[in-house]
Amino acid sequence: MDQLDALRIFLRVAEMASFTQAAQSLGLPKASISTAVQRLEAELGTRLLHRTTRRVQMTPDGQTFYERSRDLLSDIEELQGMFRQGATQLQGRLRVDMPMGIARAIVMPQLPAFMQAHPGLQIELSSTDRRVDLVREGFDCVLRVGPLGDSSLVARPLGRYRMINCASPAYLAAAGVPQSLDDLARHRLVHYASSLGGKPAGFEYTTAQDDDTPSFVAMQGALTVNNSDAYQAACLAGFGLIQVPEPGVKPLLDTGALVEVLPQFRAAPMQVSILYGNRRHVSQRLQVFMNWLAGIVQPHLRG
């Protein structure tokens, strides 16, 4: 194992805060991961990681070494790629994360063509509604819907999702079609909560005078879910109204499986952005992937 391999191992352990998870993601024995980090610390003459039975955390020296090593490896990979045989072919692995709805409806149908154009790439695609920690979990980039909170990451805004209120025909046949906000008192809302146990805010809406400032109407509802697939399935099953980005339900609206209601009281549009680490240089493979991702997502967004 050479120095570059040891640096890559240290970076993955530091980002995932776990020797076990780093070993699994790299396909190496845990003992090899631990030995590589120990040898690196011995050569440097300093401790890079605090180890306990529950977690792994970088020391101050480890944090400094991490930041310099990350930039160094990015530069080396870029330099090596310039002189490889067939240097125009992208090589390496990308780990990305995005919401389930975007992965299912937009990315997966077009991903085979991208992979065929770049056969030297391997992609680890995480699809979850929770907000992953890009640095600690070792992601190269994430596609995020909604407000941004981490200023240490670089954000590439793509546009905004228009939100749609909808329900199933069977539900509307039984409960009636709401025509005003007052009508919502007689209706049910499928509640969405990223962490179960929280109190949902209710039906969100804005008007032309609100300038995207949200207001809420408290609504009853017997079902709370914590992911987008279950949210959509609950609506199809007749549990009540949902409020979702338009692209995710457009096929269902086109076929009549779902029906839009209260179009004059939609929720505020949701910002869609690509986030990546604050590095001096972005690898060519990541830049190409982010450009491709932006190109296929933006036609579904508004400016």
How would you characterize the overall build of this protein?
- The chain is α/β, with parallel strands linked by helices.
- It is 39% helix and 21% strand.
- It is built from nine helices and 14 strands.
- It has a five-stranded mixed sheet with strand order 4-3-5-14-6. Strands 12-7-13 form a three-stranded antiparallel sheet. Strands 1-2 form a two-stranded antiparallel ribbon.
- The radius of gyration is 23 Å and the shape is elongated.
- The termini are far apart.
| Structure classification | alpha/beta
Could you tell me the strand content as a percent range? 15-25%
Secondary-structure element series = HHHEEHEHEEEEHEEEEHEHEEH
Sheet of most strands = 5 strands, mixed
Oligomer: single chain
Mean pLDDT: 87
Number of helices: 9
The helicity comes to 25-40%
Rg measurement, Å: 23 Å
Topology:
Blueprint: H1 3-16, H2 19-26, H3 30-44, E1 49-51, E2 56-58, H4 60-83, E3 92-98, H5 100-117, E4 121-127, E5 141-145, E6 153-161, E7 163-167, H6 169-175, E8 191-192, E9 203-205, E10 215-217, E11 224-225, H7 228-236, E12 242-245, H8 246-255, E13 259-260, E14 270-277, H9 284-297
Parallel strand pairs: 3-4, 3-5, 8-11
Antiparallel strand pairs: 1-2, 5-14, 6-14, 7-12, 7-13, 9-10
